[in-house]
Amino acid sequence: MVRTILAALVCLLLCACSQVAERGADAPRRIVSLDYCADQYVLKFADREDILALSPDAEKRFSYMRAAAKGIPTVRPRTADVLALQPDLVVRTYGGGHDIADFMKEPGVPVVQIGFPQSIAEVRGEVLRVGTELGKPDEAEQLVADMDRRLKALAERSGPQREVLYMTPAGVTAGEGTLVHELFVAADLRNFQDRPGWNPLPLERLAYERPDLIAAAFFESKTNHVDNWSAARHPVARAQLRELPVVALEGSWTSCGGWFLLDAVEALATAGENTR
């Protein structure tokens, strides 16, 4: 009987040691995420038992990892609320305001700051960096390798290049110099918007020219209502959505800069192939 108990204890000890080795001795514990963009990285790379709290938006529709967030406590991104949890690490993109990192210095809580990537190459870099800071460099490298594989498969597709216009309920579109434009390039689509940056929909041009398809983003979001003065309410804009092929870009694909942008690129590429 004693031997059986000892054998079981040895087995449990070996399993625990194996799990520690797998997670990495330096992997952070007691992690708090301050916004839903940070939630995605924490849920992807941190072990569930190491997550103290996520942001209040972790299970919202625009959160890509919302299914994995179920059952994990949330915390408001306020210094006092966060410090009350006694975290070992805080992860943020914009949560808590620009000065929350300074408030974390005195109690000695390190903060991982996630950037705002403006290209797929920058997304790739953030995945590697943040995954490593969360103690999962191998997983981060595997995820980037998967991104590269998917991009290579897209590049090998052939067919006529289609023209696409990005449209949001707010009547905004995106040109060169935006991450949206980079997604179009990766999907082998031409951007109908010929002005760089973020601009209102080009209604005058749309009155006599048309793209091949519309990339409609955030139309499924209940928090992104169409304003009465939005260009998206104009009959010319409505005609595009009604009469042209539309690829619906889920908000969870594009609201943050992460590996999940590849879902949007693949949807765009498939829509371009299917457009005649």
Defining key terms:
alpha/beta, 4-stranded parallel β-sheet
Summarize the structure.
It contains twelve helices and ten strands.
The backbone outline, from C-alpha atoms, is: elongated
pLDDT average, as an integer?
87
Model regions low in confidence, pLDDT < 50 over at least 5 residues: 4-24
Could you say which structural class the secondary elements and strand pairing correspond to? alpha/beta
Q: Major sheet: order of its strands?
A: 2-1-3-4
Helix content: 40-55%
Write the layout of secondary structure elements.
Layout: H1 2-23, E1 31-33, H2 36-45, E2 51-53, H3 66-69, H4 79-83, E3 89-92, H5 100-105, E4 111-113, H6 120-133, H7 137-155, E5 162-167, E6 172-174, H8 179-186, E7 189-191, E8 198-200, H9 203-206, E9 213-217, H10 235-243, E10 246-249, H11 251-254, H12 261-274
Helix pairs in contact: 6-7
Task: Note down, in words, how this protein is organized.
The chain is α/β, with parallel strands linked by helices and 276 residues long. Helices cover 43% and strands 13% of the residues. It has twelve helices and ten strands. The chain has helices spanning 2-23, 36-45, 66-69, 79-83, 100-105, 120-133, 137-155, 179-186, 203-206, 235-243, 251-254, 261-274, and strands at residues 31-33, 51-53, 89-92, 111-113, 162-167, 172-174, 189-191, 198-200, 213-217, 246-249. Strands 2-1-3-4 form a four-stranded parallel beta sheet, with helices on one face. Strands 7-5-9-10 form a four-stranded parallel beta sheet. Helix 6 (120-133) packs antiparallel against helix 7. The termini are far apart. The model is unreliable at 4-24 (pLDDT under 50).
